Amino acid sequence: MSPTKISKLARSNRSPEPRLGARSPEVQPFGRLRLLPIALSAEARGQSAQVLNEILADSMILYGLYKKHHWLMAGPTFYQLHLLFDKHAAEQLELIDLIAERVQSLGGIAVGDPRHAAEITTIERPPNGAEDVPVMIDRLLDAHETIIEKVRAAIEATEKSKDWGSNDLLMGDVLRRHELQVWFVAEHVVDLPLIEPRS
Ligand SMILES: [Fe+2]
Fold first, then answer.
1. Per-residue pLDDT reduced to its tens digit, 167-185
2. How many folded domains does the chain comprise?
């Protein structure tokens, strides 16, 4: 390298050191929309973003509940439920990403921090310790229904506002996945013996 080039580099203040400790004021506060050109009114986008964020927050809590119960599972159906709950958690994680990216597509800010989700969710908080298996199952079914109620209302609202992108996501991805998961979980609290006792 020529001496001129070396001295130019020295003057450019370049450094291989990572610049740590960056902080700045928010560039877009939560709840404020950006204008994205998707031919949908700000009112419709705002309404959808809000309700999707509520469903998103609940979904993050449900995901955590599935993982908690996957870990704390016990008893004769341990292995089956341990695996099922992990599968459902993974599917919820996929929904979480789809919902969050829909909020972003509408110009909103998706709930991202679990502490933020905890402020928004209406799902009852379980104790930090372990509970009986039927209670764990019931908590999951309860959380699903809380979300499903909101999803049904949001399907109607997005139909009225003609937000078809959110409507399609809520109906085709979110609602059907929840209904299927409820079926699989609810079958574990049906009181039917595998074999009839001999009389
Ligand atoms: Fe695991």
1. 999 999 999 999 999 999 9
2. 1
Residue 106 resides in a domain: yes
Whether 195 is covered by a domain: the verdict is no
State the distance from the centre of ligand 1 to the C-alpha of 68, rounded, in angstroms. Answer: 10
What distance in angstroms lies between residue 91's CA and the mean position of ligand 1's atoms? 14
pTM greater than the 0.85 cutoff: yes
How far apart are the CA of 179 and the centre of ligand 1, in A?
23
State how far the Cα of 187 lies from the Cα of 199, in Å rounded to an integer: 26
* CATH code at position 93: 1.20.1260.10
* Residue 24 placed within a domain: no
Check if the beta carbon of residue 63 is closer than 8 Å to that of residue 92: yes
38-86 pLDDT per residue, tens: 999 999 999 999 999 999 999 999 999 999 999 999 999 999 999 999 9
**What does residue 71 show for φ and ψ, rounded to 5 degrees?**
-75, -40
Q: How confident is the model at residue 157 (pLDDT cuts 50, 70, 90)?
A: very high
Residue 112 Cα to ligand 1 midpoint, Å, equals 23
Domain that holds residue 144: 41-189
What is the signed CA dihedral for 170, 90, 69, 102, rounded to 10 degrees? Answer: -30
